[in-house]
Amino acid sequence: MNEETNKAYNYILFLISRQDYPKSKLQKKLSQKGYSKEIIDAVLERISSQGIFDEKRYMDSKIRSLAKRNYSKSHIHKFLKHEDLSFEDSEIDSIFAKEEITEEEQLDQLIDKKIKKFTHRPLNQDEKYQIQKKLFSYLYSKGHNYKKIMTSLTKKLSEI
Fold first, then answer.
1. Do 110 and 142 touch, CB atoms closer than 8 A?
2. CATH code for the domain defined by 3-53
3. Rounded to two decimals, what is the model's pTM?
């Protein structure tokens, strides 16, 4: 391995020792440092063959992390596409199943977490409507489905 390739290899080790990256970001970072495509490919092949980097492991970790932070499957799907990762929807479903996470449970957890701020006193209809609007925006930003959000919100707000 020549000196330039060795520098690129050490740089990649430095990067991935601090946080996980998808292959596309590692390529971009090496490219920004001025390394040639041949060197980039050689370094990425080397870290993959050594087991230091595994894009599948990175992807599974990201899916698990986002799911536990109550992001919906559709949001995770968009995130993975943005990261230029190739995956099947069944991989997302599989991790949700392994972790025993459902989107309904995610919605309930998010609503329960946010609604605590407002339940210290009885609320009138207008206040409930304002809370519903705020909660809807928050839940929608997590990628959840309109119909599921409205169902969960209506149920939870009727309980307070």
1. yes
2. 1.10.10.10
3. 0.80
